[in-house]
């Protein structure tokens, strides 16, 4: 993967950059304030996570602003080899800029899993179809249930996890994973598979592979007519989902539970904007719904004033 994609940028809209890099960064806390200030000065919003093990996040902003932030990151010795993936959004997909300090840049909760020491074999998007079509391969989606609900690779196994922390226990309890020699894993942008494949190697699996650049890179590079991807890919910003060519999808987001919603979901009697949807209505109390209605009212008032409500 090159540091930047070469597809031409649209004349208007916002550049979105998804990035991560596993590397030892003992001074990670010292980078938070200058990085936060630089992003704000350049009109860049999103979330960046800094930890002892590296950096992870997605940011969006004016093209020049994103280039400035990426150049700053790559000027740091630890991130000189940083790679990122680009897409575009018609509207700013984030409400604010947050640079956060974390224990892990992607939380698995298993000690001593180090992707810089042991990791699966990277597979380019152009070679992915052949691998997952091989009858000797088990394909595993490492994302969570609300993500897999709107799209997966054909024939993939869905662990139905609520959080990535559940993934190790799912692997340990599924002894059938040893029935085939090859394990192929994928996630949105590649970062979860870095830890997932490292964990699988620790568990004794030898032939472990993962999609380089994740679903996003596959949707960018593989033509729709050749694709084995079915549905849309959930993204963690206001676009909610993307399709082939990284075009914005049509999903909406339930502001109560953060679950992606189809057009059919929004016609349900259980759907109330900002309050509930078919996926969360049964789990919410009337007190919850009253609170969410008040929040939605404030958001609607802010919208009428031409403002963006940060409680969104």
Describe the fold and architecture:
The chain is an alpha/beta fold and 312 residues long. Helices cover 26% and strands 22% of the residues. The chain is built from eight helices and 15 strands. The protein has helices spanning 32-41, 63-75, 125-133, 145-148, 167-173, 191-202, 214-221, 286-304; strands at 14-22, 45-51, 54-61, 83-89, 97-101, 121-123, 137-141, 151-153, 182-186, 207-211, 229-231, 233-234, 241-242, 252-253, 260-261. A five-stranded mixed beta sheet has the order 4-1-3-2-5, covered by helices on one side. The chain has a four-stranded parallel beta sheet with strand order 6-10-9-7. A two-stranded antiparallel ribbon has the order 8-11. Strand 12 and strand 13 (241-242) form a beta hairpin. Helix 1 (32-41) runs antiparallel to helix 2 (63-75). It starts with 13 loop residues before the first strand and ends in an 8-residue tail after the last helix.
């Amino acid at each position: 993967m090159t540091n930047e994609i070469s597809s031409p940028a649209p004349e208007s809209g916002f550049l979105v950059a998804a990035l991560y890099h596993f590397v030892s960064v003992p001074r990670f806390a010292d980078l938070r304030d200058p990085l936060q200030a630089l992003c704000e000065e350049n009109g860049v919003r999103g979330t960046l996570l800094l930890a002892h093990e590296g950096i992870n996040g997605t940011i969006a902003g004016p093209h020049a602003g994103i280039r400035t932030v990426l150049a700053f990151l790559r000027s740091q010795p630890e991130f000189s080899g940083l790679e990122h993936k680009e897409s575009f959004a018609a509207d700013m997909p984030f409400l604010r800029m947050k640079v956060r300090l974390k224990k892990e840049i992607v939380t698995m909760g298993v000690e001593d899993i180090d992707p810089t020491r042991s990791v699966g074999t990277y597979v380019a998007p152009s070679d992915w179809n052949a691998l997952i079509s091989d009858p000797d391969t088990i394909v595993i989606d490492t994302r969570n249930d609300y993500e897999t609900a709107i799209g997966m690779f054909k024939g993939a196994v869905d662990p139905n996890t609520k959080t990535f922390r559940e993934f190790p226990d799912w692997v340990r309890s599924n002894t059938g994973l040893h029935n085939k020699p090859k394990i192929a894993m994928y996630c949105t942008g590649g970062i979860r598979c870095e830890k997932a494949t490292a964990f699988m190697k620790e568990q004794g699996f030898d032939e472990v592979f993962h999609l380089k650049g994740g679903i996003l890179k596959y949707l960018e590079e593989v033509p729709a007519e050749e694709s084995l991807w079915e549905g849309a890919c959930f993204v963690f910003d206001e676009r909610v989902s993307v399709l082939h060519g990284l075009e914005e999808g049509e999903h909406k987001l339930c502001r109560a539970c953060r679950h992606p919603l189809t057009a059919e979901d929004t016609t349900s009697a259980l759907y109330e904007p900002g309050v509930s949807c078919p996926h969360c209505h049964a789990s919410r109390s009337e007190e919850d719904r009253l609170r969410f209605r008040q929040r939605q009212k404030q958001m609607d008032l802010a919208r009428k004033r031409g403002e963006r409500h940060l409680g969104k």
